[in-house]
Amino acid sequence: MSEHAEQKYEEFRETFLKIQQEVSKQIVGQKEIIEGVLICLMTGGHALLEGVPGLGKTLLIRTLHEVLDLKFARIQFTPDLMPADIIGTTVVAEDEDGRKFFEFQQGPVFANLILADEINRATPKTQSALLEAMQEKSVTVAGQQRDLKLPFFVMATQNPLEMEGTYPLPEAQLDRFFFKLKVEYPSLDELDLVMERTTRREMPSVDKVCDGAQINALEQIVRDILIAEDVRRYALRIVLGTHPETEDAPELTKKYVRYGSSPRGAQALILGGKVRAILDGRYNVAREDIQAIALPSLRHRLILSFEGEAEGIDPDGIIQHLLEEIE
Asked: Residue 213's domain is classified under what CATH number?
């Protein structure tokens, strides 16, 4: 490997760890969540965070905004939110001479970091307004396509407990999230540190680390990492193992899964594995990298069968079983 390539990878690792370090000044614990969100950001993906209120999901992306020189917007999803409230709308304006003209007013989606708070509280019509933006990095208003400024990163949150009056995300939208991360309750020591930081006059300050152009450059560096054919095919066998109709699918999959992961799940495994390799100081992806990110990559891409729903099967258990079965 050339010295220039090694230098690029080292620069990526240093920047990633520096961002992680700055975010950790305000976010207590949650190392896996912070790392998962940053992997999504560095690969051009989006993150879905699931957890009860008060665990720092909103604070996480606000802190990320403070660390990165990027435009931030928060969208509070409610049942009465309309698509135009997200992407913007064309209005009639008037110039100095009294002549009227149409003018497009941008919605909050025209930012770099988007917090879609409690995304499952909005109607499907409004949820779908994010679909084109998340996948195509553009929106269409009145027949005109408008590109969004890169990097474009959506972090959506949802509460797993309060399901009354919510609209579960359709599979097509869930699939557009690179990772689904489960935010767990902090331990006693972590909770003590949270209280120490949040009940004082001032929160710890963070420093700016990089801007949008640097993030875009780092995303390209990730794609240069090599992955051997046997490791790539290992990732693909895991994805195929989530499909009950495939011959080699484990019995657990055939019994409890109705539909398995899309090819986007394989993309998440491979790209996420490349980031893990760089962070570990390696320049090629290992099976351990694929295994480490299998849960956040695939858990939201499995659709359980009636038996799976009835028995309360957790997709994480099926994925763990896959990792044990597939060689």
From this structure: 3.40.50.300
